[in-house]
Amino acid sequence: MSRPPPLPHPTTTLHLYRHLLRESSYLPVLIRPFFDERITTRFRTHRASDPASCPQTASRLKRAHHDLRYLRAANAGDLPRMRRILLLAFGRTGAKRRQLLSNLLEPDTPTSDEELQKYINKARAIVKEGRKPDWLDNWDTEKLKAFVRSQTGGDAPPIVNRPKPEITNHQLAPERYVPKENIWGGPLNEKVRRTKLKKTYKQVAEKVLPPVPREEWELLRDLVNKKEEWEVPKRRAVGRLIWAKKDDDKSKEEAMLDWNWQRYATQPIWLVDRQKSRRNMLLSGQVDEDLPMGEQQPINCHRYTPRLWRRTLEQVWRMTAVMERKKDGKGWEIEWGQKKYEPPVAPSADLEFFEGAPVRAEPKKKKGKQ
Question: pTM for this one?
Fold first, then answer.
């Protein structure tokens, strides 16, 4: 069974930092730089914080211990957690998604007189409405709606285990579904209408899977289509002291004395053996070896193979897209990741089984009435 190695629990902050970098080195090569940069940046940002004067230090260390267990479980074969790590690395969720979303919503710099005139007309419309500019005025709503139509339309392939909920029909055109009258039949207040419009746009932005840089998108495409090969590094052996003995010095009697029987006498069994359950084996690394049925396998534990990696990366690739402006400057070109499936060709050793098989002819087109 694949499970995290019995490494010592980190006692100091530097020890914890080294453990995180070590676990990050076992991740796939294409996502390792993202997590290395994230770990080092956060550590260097908060390393000068005094635990006595900064109350957030304890919660940060607790979160770091949680992330260490999460990385160990993912590297040991926990596929759902590894999939979550891939979604974080490619901006389908988390901080990187928010950064990609801000790039999507940021208006482009005007490059022609027509685009500059649009910005001027937009500023004049705000003054004419008699309101102050808000955060929605800084969004490129036309670009956002074009990408949303591509995500909800036929351009995007069907997604399995979507990280964000689907966008509804009334969110495709928020201005159209904002009510024009209040409950009494009178005209809706302009401030209320603007608030409803901003709320709808915010809901749309929370469901968008923003486009990624073309370099990352093409790298995913090549890995899925077997144009590039890569291997996950093997885990290094745990270091041992030179003078350490192979056999345990403690006898069975001493091991029985170390057994914490007070917990079994005062707490429920499910709580005491919670870390040894099949669901938590990969997180804790503990195994209950005294069961009558023998050692059990953890839940959601997989053996990583090249085929499994390609299938997992294909699911992530189907959630990513690239967005570029057309050459004429009107509209956008959006391309989603979608693998073209072709029927397999029978090998030469199996061709004898297909001898004499009827060849499927294309149906003839019926002529219409003249």
Answer: 0.79
